Amino acid sequence: MSKAKNGPAPEKATTATEVDGTPKRSKAQQLAAYKAGYETYQTTTGNLSMDNGDDVALILRGASPEVVMRAAEKLKGLEPGTLATRYADRNPGAKRMNSGNIIRGFVKREGTVEQVKKAIKEANAEINTAK
Fold it and tell me: Judging by beta carbons within 10 Å of its beta carbon (0-12, 13-18, 19+), is residue 34 exposed, middle or buried?
């Protein structure tokens, strides 16, 4: 056999599931790791739900997807109905989660929890008045 002309052969990964020294986790392992940081609570309808228990999550508990979407629109200065249109093909849980993530990003980058409380209160009044 001839030897490589360009130096030694590259080292092989120690296992097939290892990438850059970090073991690859199964989906079940990933979910278990993330779930450990979540709190379970009971909704007003009696169903169990989970969130991370931070200030934003506590404010959003009990709010409908429509209220959370409207509050996110208010906080980001979007026209009413923008997120409803954007998320029309998603289920209610996905609508609420995505809108909640917009709110969480708003607080992280530019806003306050007090602004979120106010927006949720206003959105709740608007949505419930419209019904």
Answer: exposed
Band of pLDDT at residue 23, cut at 50, 70 and 90? confident
| Residues 70/127, Cβ–Cβ less than 8 Å | yes
Single pTM value for the model: 0.72
CA dihedral 103, 84, 91, 54 (to 10 degrees): 10
Spell out the residues 6+ positions from residue 106 whose beta carbon is closer than 8 angstroms to its own.
72, 75, 76, 115, 116
Size of the chain in residues: 131
How far apart (Å, rounded) are the C-alpha atoms in residues 111 and 130?
A: 27
- Cβ–Cβ under 8 Å, residues 48 and 54: no
For residue 16, what pLDDT band results from cuts at 50, 70 and 90? very low
Region of 46 (left: φ > 0; alpha: ψ -120 to 50; beta: rest) is left
Q: What is the pLDDT of residues 55-89, one digit of tens each?
A: 999 999 989 999 999 999 999 999 999 999 999 99
